[in-house]
Amino acid sequence: MEAVPLNFVRAVDLKIDGKDVRVPEGTTLLQACKSVGIDTPTLCYLENLTPVNVCRVCVVEVENSRVLVPACSRVAEPGMVVQTDSERVRHSRKLVFELLGSSVDLSTAEPTFLADLERYAAEPDRFDTGDAHGHGAKATVKQPVKIDNDLYVRDYSKCVLCYKCVEACGTDAQNTFAIAVAGRGFNASIATEFDTPLPDSACVYCGNCIGVCPTGALMFKSEHDMREAGTWDESKQTVTDTICPYCGVGCTLQLHVQDNSIVRVTSPHDHDVTEGHLCIKGRFGWQFVQNR
Length: 292
What we know:
The protein is α+β, with helices and mostly antiparallel strands. The chain is 19% helix and 18% strand. It has three domains: 11-88, Roll (Ubiquitin-like (UB roll)); 92-127, no CATH class; 152-289, N-terminal domain of TfIIb, CATH 2.20.25.90. The strands form four sheets. It has a five-stranded mixed β-sheet, with helices on both faces. The protein has a three-stranded antiparallel β-sheet with strand order 10-11-12.
């Protein structure tokens, strides 16, 4: 009988914040930090997406490294000495949060984002380009909300260019490539090919971009309308897991219900079938439940 070769994974020993840590070879510094209970802030990182290293929020200090390194993609190496909460790291994260928040509206950002702003005592307003009379002039907030379909709205005044939506639309999930980042500096924005209207673009309305957006720049139209009417209240909402009825794949849906009506649908990022991603039917095809 032919022997089956065994694939052994080597262990890597390193030191993080003075703690001796052992992780499997190939583990990122972010994963190594999580393994010992060290909370490292992230923004452009998500477990079901490829790290793109654009936000620099998760940077850590590695001994003998000239620059701070992104923990989300830097692989742990034997003998590494890592500092995740040094003065240099804290100053860098504080500045990044301030710059990110200086030109956008963070009113609907995820609670973890806002908690990290507070954690690092970030003051985005000190970079606001207001006039001499104290009137704010944030660079991107002037954009109007784009409402061109019945499924979701795009409010790029809240976009921090984390690239998550681009990744979800690309090879990480949908492979549609309907959107990308266009422009530079304050003129950079998420755009369709040749900036065509969304209904005329390659978008298939899977909504996976909404599922990964951390700031509410992409939002269910049902949620947007309720927020505009002042009726959106997450404290009154319940979340129920169920299986999508449309096909046999078996995607888990999380139904967010308020006042006995479904207001949006998500899927857990750790679900082994969907990894948080859905198709247009699973994410948006629930209106029939209300029309009984």
